[in-house]
Amino acid sequence: MQDLIKRLAELYGPAGSEERVAVYIQESIRPVVHEVYTDPMGSVVAVKRGAADGKKIMLAAHMDEIGVMVTDIDEKGFLRFSNIGGISPFTLIGQRAEFADGTIGVFGFEKVDDMRDLKLNKMYIDIGASSKEEAAAKVNIGDSAVIHRECIVQGRRVIGKAMDNRIGCAVLIETARRLQDSPNEVYFVFTTQEEVGLRGARTAAYSVDPDYGIAVDVTATGDTPEAQRMAVSLGKGAAIKVKDNSVITHPVVRNLLIDTAKAKGIAYQMEVLEWGGTDAGSIHLTRSGVPTGAVSVPCRYVHTPSEMVDLDDVEACVQLLTAVLERPWQ
Ligand SMILES: [Zn+2]
Question: Cα of 61 to ligand 1 centre, how many Å?
């Protein structure tokens, strides 16, 4: 599974340009499901059929990652850019931008008297061009870039860009591999454009029309020096979400997850995230409402180039999802 995580995390896939991730996921999951297709918004849907009277359960993990988009090229060939999703200027200093064709640029910034005034509009990307024409030969207005960063495994910890949410994609693929006979009809959905407003999940949930939903994504932790208080730690198990800014999870799904974790002896922790959102936010508001829960992989340094997760937590998430899908749902 480590190889799967590394491959997924290093793929280029900012919101709106998830095609490469979609292709890789389809290849990975096809052998273990009954059907795979891509919906009009680019989300990948993989179906594993169960008993005829089984419930339809939609699992969702988003494929997209945060990034930047070129807004303008100046006369000297420096690129100005806007954000794709939640990206802080401070996390970009000293980092490299990677465009779809492999072009690499360096994030630089104008002189600012007080670093607190650093905003994205004071920054630029330097791709080594010395004129507008030279830059425009490589990069166009509207081109997207992600942060260029390799993924490394060190002991039980994995560090890389786009753990949010390729780790969730890896959890779904591994769950599909391990899930043998399920009484339920399971839809493994890999969504687009989560980072810009939970968009792919909205349309995917409408067309799948599930009885229940479970989003799988990363969540923050409160276990680093002087961190904002939060009762989630790396290495303490799968996080069962109660609330974030997009959803209050449905008690039926939440309790089924808790009961399953207890019955199987799977390490878990309760998650209350005081900001942010997940695909659960879109899924539960679909049509007349879908009871929806969420399982999160604890992650330090979310939305930086060095997001860190723990492989024991990843394993706990896979075990929990596999076990809960093996149960009959009412
Ligand atoms: Zn995410």
Answer: 8
**Each residue's pLDDT tens digit, 131-150:** 999 999 999 999 999 999 99
- Extents of the domains making up the chain: 2-65+161-326, 69-147
**CATH superfamily assigned to domain 2-65+161-326:** Zn peptidases (3.40.630.10)
110 CA to centre of ligand 1 in angstroms? 30
Give the distance (Å) from ligand 1 centre to CA of residue 65.
8
Give per-residue pLDDT as tens, 79-90.
999 999 999 999
Ion ligand 1, residue ranges at CB < 5 A: 164-165, 217
Catalytic residue among 194, 195, 307, 315: 194
Specify whether 194 is catalytic: yes
Question: Strand locations in 85-211, DSSP E?
Answer: 96-99, 104-109, 123-126, 144-147, 152-154, 157-160, 185-191
Which residue in the block uniquely carries the two structure tokens 């937590």? Answer: 313
pLDDT at 52: 82
Same fold, 2-65+161-326 and 69-147: no
What is the third-level CATH fold of 69-147? Elongation Factor Tu (Ef-tu); domain 3 (2.40.30)
Whether pLDDT at 330 is above 90: no
The confidence score (pLDDT) of residue 53 equals 86
**Strand, coil or helix: 53:** coil
Cβ-contact 276, 247 below 8 angstroms: no
